[in-house]
Amino acid sequence: MTMRIVHVYKDYYPVLGGIENHVRVLAERQVAAGHEVAVVVCALGRQGSVAVEGGVTVVRTGRLATVRSMPLSLSFKGALRDRGAEVVHVHSPFPLGEQAATGLKRDVALVVTHHADVVKQKLLLKFYTPLYKRFLRRVDRIIVTSEAYGRSSPWLQAHGDKLRAVPLGIESATFKPANGNKGDVVELLFAGKLRYYKGLDDLLEALEGLKGVRLNIVGDGPMRQKLEGQAAELKLTDRVNFLGEVADDELPGLYQRARLFVLPANCRAEAFGTVLLEAMASGLPCVSTELATGTSWVVQDGVTGMVVPPRNPAALAEAITSLLSDPERLRSMGDAGRQRVLDTFTTDKMVAGVEAVYREAQGL
Asked: Which residues fall within 8 angstroms of residue 248, CB to CB, at 6 or more apart?
């Protein structure tokens, strides 16, 4: 049975980001399965638009302003209501979309993916908390990307009966292990938005003591200038490459060149880490941090990589040194990581899991 599905978030491709990419993949795969799918997001400017992209109807409402990275749009609520959806899937945190969806009629199945807790914006929390609690009371089902995040999130404690864990997934065929020797240059890789919670300042500090090791940083964001300054202060400019955003077809090759992938996130804003899946599918062991989120579930400590305490450059350096000094361990962890992706984190499994939640939310 086909469904009329509407995804709700602040941005959509070509805006790049983990949630933006997730929404795009999910929407396009749902179209391929025969569903009627739209996304309602905010335009980058005041002029709204409607277009069909990859089979998905993309409704961009005019953006009045942006406050603390969250857009405001006077036409958003009406645009969502006018889609006539059977299932509305909100991707949170996104206050504008949550409040627009709260007022939908009860015959619309309302699902939210709680991608991450809001942890830093203290002033925003004062106003946001009661609104989000009201929204969660209205939703029919809450998707979390790992059971670990659902258990540990203070936002979700009162809604255990609504929680459903659906891990994120990737197209494993896109990311494959390298064939043959990686050469003499020892490269680490990071990929993601350059934001405060990614912990790259800790990784740069750790790198200072790792002689002969280079670091490629893929991505852009508000922390870039500060991180470039830190790299210069630590005299690392000849060993750290800030590559910015790279094309989709270039990224697999960067994974294949690397010996290790490092995600040194420092707080719960890093809820899962899809880049960990890309690295593992590429046969790379990963070093991540223990945040009581999905990162230390995706990376199995001692099996597919190492998990260390956050905000601890010394622990990062020790883990990286330990793994780089044992090529056989690197190989076995890389093999185990790829198998874990194939077993648990494919796009097919993710899409099927989300659709099952939709059916449940509809009472089917």
From this structure: none
Domain boundaries, the chain: 4-169+346-361, 172-344
- Give the CATH number of domain 172-344: 3.40.50.2000
* Neighbour count for residue 352 (Cβ, 10 Å): 14
Q: What is the maximum span of the chain, computed from C-alpha positions, in angstroms?
A: 61
Residues 6+ apart with CB under 8 A from 58: 12, 38, 39, 41, 49, 50, 51, 52
DSSP type of residue 169: -
Q: Which CATH superfamily is domain 4-169+346-361 in?
A: Glycogen Phosphorylase B; (3.40.50.2000)
Q: Does 4-169+346-361 match 172-344 in CATH topology?
A: yes
One pLDDT digit (tens) per residue for the chain, 364 residues: 899 999 999 999 999 888 999 999 999 999 999 999 999 999 999 999 999 999 999 999 999 999 888 899 999 999 999 999 999 999 999 999 999 999 999 999 999 999 999 877 666 778 888 999 999 999 999 999 999 999 999 999 999 999 999 999 999 999 999 987 787 889 999 999 999 999 999 999 999 999 999 999 999 999 999 999 999 999 999 999 999 999 989 999 999 999 999 999 999 999 999 999 999 999 999 999 999 999 999 999 999 999 999 999 999 999 999 999 999 999 999 999 999 999 999 999 999 999 999 999 999 7
What spatial distance separates the first Cα and last Cα of the chain, rounded to whole Å?
Answer: 11
